[in-house]
Amino acid sequence: MRIIDQIYIGGGFDRPHGSEEAPLFNPATEQQIGVVRLGDEEDVERAVAAAKRAFPAFSRTSKAERIDMLHRLNAAVSRRADELADAMREEYGAPQGFVKFAAPRAGSVFLDMAKTLETYEFRRRIGRAEVEMRPAGVAAAITPWNSNYGFICSKLATAVAAGATIVIKPSEMSAIQTQILTECLHDANLPAGVFNIVNGYGGVVGAALTSHRDIAKITFTGSTATGRAILQAASGAMKRVTLELGGKSPNIILDDADLDAAIPQALAAGFINSGQACIAGTRILAPADRLDEIQARLAKAIGAFKAGDPHDPEVRIGPMVSRKQWDRVQSYIRLGQEEGAKLLAGGEGRPEGVDRGWFVRPTLFSDVCNDMRIAREEIFGPVLCIIPYRDEKHAIEIANDTDYGLQAYVFSSDHKRARRVAEELEAGRVAINGAAHEPLAPFGGFKQSGIGREFGVFGLEAFLEPRTLLV
Ligand code: NAD
Does 231 share its domain with 186? Predict the structure, then answer.
């Protein structure tokens, strides 16, 4: 049983003033594995004050000093990548495939930001003016549970690169991962107050941060509903916001796609991170004249997506993070049937042979119309919809007929055609034929998938304010 009773303020670990406690679970066994003592509004005050004190000196550090700090952060986090991976498996139930991506990336995001910083010009001349990019001020980061330390690291990396100090509120459900990560970050020996970490509930610590008058910038990753509340709270003091929110990404299989390659990749995109991913390609758009063949292939290929113990290297789908999330996903599987969609694979309940843990059967719905709730709302579990389309134009129409716009996937044997379709899609990122992630390219959503972009130069500038000097 892990007892997490510390937060991190002003360069050191400290007991929170808040006294409320929250249980921590292993979602694969449903057993309680820890307890976290949560911070409160007074802890937010102390953390923001520490970040504010550190800001003047930190904002004046040189690029070279900050690049050096980013390298130290990378080294400190990378040293304990195995422990972070274990904690992610235990506390979150992430399957091997996702852990293998997430654990090294927690460290590498600092190097990506160092690389961005190397060539970034903070001063430039525009006509008669000298323009200087200044750190926006003290920042607050609020992160979700579905990739806990990855989000903390990428947001911290950007703040450090910009010369901004930060207060971070991670998900209260990921406190074991946060504790290990905080110990790593502490080892990087940054000036006191540059980063501060306060565990707590969204409605308490999160809300206190988003309305705090000394916070200039908020970077948030989480649901669209919470993003909306944060945007409202931030508007009072005109805080700058970056919001990375939900998605309902289209996965377009064009009629000339090589199905041997496209089918497993489309499923992998839909089931990424056990379906608990903002970028999951959850709407599979299939050409009506190849629908039977594609459905048959999807139903067969889903057999390779085993759900179960995240320690098993063959398992590709771990448990849902909590009982609440499991119930929510089950309710959508029921809803899909009530709405008239057909179960092509999966369904309600746990996978066969699994008698405990918040596991969901990998589920495929056919006969889905894009106006059904299962096609419009983010389910955040391994539940995919197959939606038929008549022609390319119709596919684009369905793909864009959504409140979201985070990511899209296109599969085709004709690269030019895939690009042509990609260019019509209202999404922050479009991946053609399963193309890999590019860590320096902007990431973020159109429409209700968010505001602003993270990573690389776009991410850095979201923490900066231009100041024009006319001489
Ligand atoms: P959530 O919105 O419930 O919580 C996210 C964070 O916000 C948590 O730390 C929570 O405590 C905090 N919070 C809750 N209410 C708050 C409030 N009123 N004020 C301030 N903070 C508050 O999201 P979740 O369930 O933890 O994560 C899943 C969601 O995150 C999904 O919708 C998913 O699509 C989204 N997500 C988006 C991205 C992206 O990059 N676009 C990445 C991962 C997850």
Answer: yes
Residues 6+ apart with CB under 8 A from 137: 55, 164, 214, 215, 216, 217
Sheet containing 12-14, strands listed edge to edge, beginning at the edge strand earlier in sequence: 12-14, 7-9, 195-197, 166-169, 139-142, 217-221, 240-244, 450-451
Residue 438 falls inside a structural domain: no
Say how many C-beta atoms besides its own lie within 10 A of residue 318's C-beta. Answer: 33
Rounded to the nearest whole angstrom, what is the distance from the C-alpha of residue 427 to the centroid of ligand 1?
20
Catalytic residues: 244, 278
Which structural domain range is residue 425 located in? 250-432
- Give every CB contact of residue 404 below 8 A, 6+ residues apart in sequence: 224, 245, 246, 247, 248, 249, 378, 445, 446, 447, 448, 449
What is the Cα–Cα distance from 136 to 162, expressed in whole angstroms?
8
Same domain, 135 and 194: yes
Q: Are residues 170 and 227 in the same domain?
A: yes
Can you list the residues of the chain whose pLDDT is less than 70?
none
Please classify residue 118 by burial: count the beta carbons closer than 10 Å to its beta carbon, then call 0-12 exposed, 13-18 middle and 19+ buried: exposed
Q: Does any domain span residue 53? A: yes
- The answer to whether the beta carbons of residues 365 and 344 sit under 8 Å apart is yes
Q: Please report, as a single letter, which amino acid is at residue 399.
A: A
The pTM of the full predicted model, rounded to 2 decimals, is: 0.97
| Residue 218, SS3 per DSSP | strand
What is the pLDDT at residue 92? 96
CA-200 nearest atom, ligand 1: 11
d(CA 340, CA 372): 9
Measured CA to CA, the distance from residue 239 to residue 47 in angstroms comes to: 18
Dump pLDDT digits (tens) for 289-304.
Answer: 999 999 999 999 999 9
Residues 199-254: pLDDT tens digits? 999 999 999 999 999 999 999 999 999 999 999 999 999 999 999 999 999 999 99
Return the residue whose CA atom lies nearest to atom 37 of ligand 1.
Answer: 245
Looking at residue 425, its pLDDT comes to: 98
Residue closest to 172 by CA, chosen among 65, 32, 39: 39
- HSE (side-chain half, CA atoms, 13 Å) at 394: 14
Q: For a pocket test of ligand 1, which of 223, 248, 429, 446 has the largest count of ligand atoms closer than 8 A to its C-beta? A: 223
* Structural domains of the chain, count: 2
CATH number at residue 171: 3.40.605.10
Helix axis angle, 63-79 to 81-92, nearest 10°: 60
Centroid of chain to Cα 334: 27
